[in-house]
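Figure caption, in words: inputs first, then the predicted bound structure.
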Amino acid sequence: VPNRLAISLLAVLFLCRYVTAQDADRGKLDFFESKVRPLLFSKCTECHSAEKQEGNLRLDSREAILKGGDYGPALKAGAPDESWIVKATRYDHDDLKMPPTGKLAQGEIDTIAKWVADGAAWPASSAPTVDPTGKPTSPVVDANFWAFQPVKPQAAPEVADAAWPKSAIDRFILARLEQAKLRPTSDASRATLVRRLTFDLTGLPPAPADVEAFVNDVDSRAIEELVDRLLASPAFGERFGRHWLDVTYFADTTGIGRRTPLNDAWRYRDYVIAAFNGDMPYDQFTREQIAGDQLPAADDATKERQLTATGFVVLGPWHHFDMDREKLTMDVVDLQIDALGRTFMGLTLGCARCHDHKFDPITAKDYYALAGIFKSTKTINGSSVNLTDLPQSTEEVQAHAAAKQAWENHEKGLTTEKDEAAKKIGELGKQIASLNEPPQPVSTTPGPTDGPDEKSIAEEKRELEKEIKKLRGRIGQIDGDLSFWRQVTPTAKRAFSAADREAPADVKINLRGNVHVLGEVSPRGFPEVIRWEGAPSPNLAKSGRLELANWLADPRHPLAARVYVNRLWKHLFGAGLVPTADNFGSRGDRPSHPELLDYLAGRLVELDWSTKALVREMILTRTYQLDSRVVPECAAVDPDNKLLWRMSPRRLEAEAIRDSVLAVSGQLDLTRGGPTLPITRANLHINTPSFLEDDAKIEPHVKNRRSVYQPIMRGSLFRDLDVLTLFDFADPDQIVAVRAATTVPTQSLFLLNSDFIKEAAQAIAKGTLSAPDRDDSARVRDIYLKLFGRAPSEAETGVAAEYLNSLGMADAAQRENAWTEYCRALLISAEFLYRR
Ligand code: HEC
Ligand code: HEC
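Bound structure (heme C present):
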């Protein structure tokens, strides 16, 4: 039952919104361009455009669709069920079935319906016509666009208030503020800082003792020590590793619509976490993920790490079954190119699959030059993903052999039992048959002629049949056991990883993206617009992935470092200097501080591509340590805080919310790494045990671990992880550079009603009630420190007392209930869910 305190606290949630309308529109237009327009073009416009208007309908502009044809308007934005353009394609109307030549694939129908439901976005202006034959059409933006220029060395600018900046970064920020005649707000309190820092670097709230220590430490180096301690904690890799996984397709299953478990996918996740914890230089991190399998390795550990790293390339939302093998292959390649572009370069390369990129200087030829590299790479393998054996130590070889032996023994036990049961059934059947035979006179000599009487024969038969039934039941059970058992065959140590195909080859341009309508060969290579003296080119005897990796990890690459430092900036400041973190092209945002972006990109290289060192520099700025208080004069000029006159407060990410709730209630299990996918008999599909059930459950020993270690299922996450889904956790089928941060009523309802929150509240209540030497106001103080990283004000202590008493504190049960309700209200308060 919702309570009043909770509701008044929740109200605060709705005051903050982060997804701007602009972001949402951009997403919708991208969806239109990549999915809807190609579909209308290939399936409808031959009969519904300038040349031909069947039913008096054109489908080549939004206006025309709105106007409609003989049936009236073909589109009602937001209402797919009332739009002819959707109804016709569903094929359930008596007369109108479109296209008349055959029903669209379900996914295509869903695409149109989703587009209509989302408001039927269609860009206002039209770009030049398409020439998808490989000849470059002139893109709207030419090669002089800022993002393709080399990173320029930048000196920090002069500022009027020379006393304010603590670092070079601060000077870039202050100079822009001064230009706009604004002043940064005041510095954050130490209590705010310790909570902010701990969340940003570890994704967890600070422990009360750490808060008190930091708040009371007047040493000026205290903050540096805190930052260093947090950067060194394994929670840092878990935090930043999860950020990175957002821009990969990592999940523990493969396949669309079927959840085929990938038992070894976790190795890639652990690789990423270890890379951040070990502060692997970003250029190396790039190289290993793209082409680790092609890199030389001095020892087994390196080999293992490098092979595992290529999980980036091979794990993805692949279709594994399509009659059209070529299309299937090229669809996988397409997703790989898109990930490569968005993740490492901030480019939407996928837009050049069917025509030259309409907005950026990327041609279809460039696209197919990359396609040749990925097509020459082994990715999928039947219904699974390419696997490679990892080097094994002698102990591992022995352990594997022992596991295999045990597995075989168990299997043999089961099959033997099954065979024996079958044999027994045969024997029992014979016995029944013999009972059925008319009693044969044993001899002609007279003697006792009466055989067993009728009644006992019937009884004996019943007994035998009962036994047969029991045996049949047992055989059924054994079959189930066996088919499960065969899903859990012990395997040698192995990883999903990329490998070059035996016969690497260039591919021909697929005209308009059609894999069967081919243009000229596009020799393997890298987008032409990104070039520098001595840039590598692909080794055509192999796939070319190694050179691609080296090309991406080169300090002269204009986008690699810029895109990465922008991500780091975003993790700390809430938004990137280029807010569209995966689109540095002309349709993305321009950098708010172009010089600072280049300065940071340069710093990254100077710091030997060290993530930790650069993060440290960003944090030890006055800018990062600003308060989040609103200054009305600044807000009037720069409401979105693009110029960074304050620290933008933000809602915690899904995993930080979940992990924090577990942490403050003492339930968090800090076990790290290893397999977590729940391959249990109950979780595997009953008829097709190579798939997970839709409602598979996470195993108890995994359930309270940090979110980054929870198994990730494609399609929809495990039910146990509803809290993640609700708070905009990244969809593993997408490259998610900027997560949505929605605030919708379902979230509050979830929080109010969820067992997850209730149990946590109860655990906190029990904990505080059993703590010795505590009166109620000390308890309130403990809880505030734990949840909010600060002591309560007198007024807050007063409110707490009033609230607790209003619920009744007469006996132990009432007290526990009152404290539980109180803790629940605090757990779902904005203060707990936000980092300021
Ligand atoms: C091969 C030609 C052809 C193709 C391809 C085709 N249509 Fe049609 N469409 C027709 C004809 C013919 C009619 C008129 C049918 C009628 O009036 O019963 C029509 C009528 C319609 C109408 C009703 C228009 C009106 O108000 O009278 C809609 C809506 C429609 N089509 C949608 C689509 C969509 C969406 C596609 C692509 C997915 C499509 N059509 C593809 C031939 C085609
Ligand atoms: C699967 C193929 C395909 C993909 C992928 C694709 N498009 Fe297109 N696009 C088309 C087709 C087909 C047309 C219509 C061509 C025509 O009218 O001649 C088109 C037209 C366009 C137009 C209008 C051109 C004009 O002359 O008016 C724009 C703009 C556009 N696409 C942008 C994009 C963007 C941006 C992306 C990536 C987000 C993208 N496209 C991805 C197939 C595709």
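The pocket of heme C (ligand 2) is lined by residues 30, 33-34, 37-38, 41, 126-130, 348, 350-351, 353-355, 358-359, 512-513 (CB under 6 Å).
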